[in-house]
Amino acid sequence: MDKEQRQADFDYCEKVIKKHSKIFYYAFSQLPSEKAKAVYAIYAFCRTADECADGSQSSKKKVQLLRQLKKELDLFNEHEELDKPLWRALRHVFNTYDMDISPFYDQLTGQSLDLSFTPPKTMHELERYSYYVAGSVGLMLVPVIASRSSADLHSSVISLGVAMQITNILRDIGEDYREKNRIYLPEDELTHVHYSQHDLHNGTINENFIGLWEKLAARAESLYSKFLFNIELLDPDSRIPVYLSAYIYRGILDAVRNNEYQCLTKRNYVTKEKMAQINAAANNVFGLWEGDAFTVEK
Known about the structure:
Layout: H1 3-20, H2 22-28, H3 33-54, H4 59-77, H5 85-96, H6 102-115, H7 123-145, H8 154-171, H9 173-180, H10 187-192, H11 197-201, H12 207-228, H13 236-258, H14 272-286
Helix pairs in contact: 1-2, 1-3, 1-5, 2-13, 3-4, 3-5, 3-6, 3-7, 4-6, 6-7, 7-8, 8-12, 8-13, 12-13, 13-14
């Protein structure tokens, strides 16, 4: 493959992450170019998988799309990938880093769980689901962001992915219910606090709801802390970008709190000012760059 074609393939992947995740794009675009491109390609694969399960197509069509993606991944695994930008870019990533194909298959398993969605009965089931759709992404990234580490970071990066997924769920409770007819809050926890689907339908935010929301948020925050405790095991050039992605995502929880838990009818996000504070903290913690090293936008 010539350099011009390779650049075009990674440009395609960069456009995908830039369009769909401003947080991840502005964090991981601070990586060295080769690593940033690898992250873009991994994200593009995950986004493609996600759109198979959450797109606007019929349920039957979604199943067909996910099966087709699985076949394409099988071909890739056999070094017979389709001649498409995503697969060409991923091949370069696999040729450059010591990649493992298993979490890519786990990601597809996670998306299949959404296609045959049933509400999690327990927190354990929620975290299992969160591993497949998000913890698997952490495992995909390890060879890129911790290429020089001899430590086993699998548990830590899974913790980060699960924390981010729980954060997504807590941010999107209303949206998931209204637009996808999905309730990701564990059934036993809902029963315990006497919060019903009728309450959710009515957009009720009461002490019971807040108590449950905070219980899940506390779990997410403990998982963020578990990961961040080991962040210095990452490659030096990867620490600030990953720190940014983790702390900005963690900041979504505080954004919901600051909006008095209005996550049933409002979209909560981290403000530009808060993101700038996180930038400053990252520079202070690692001392790698001085001044206004990043430009972060909402």
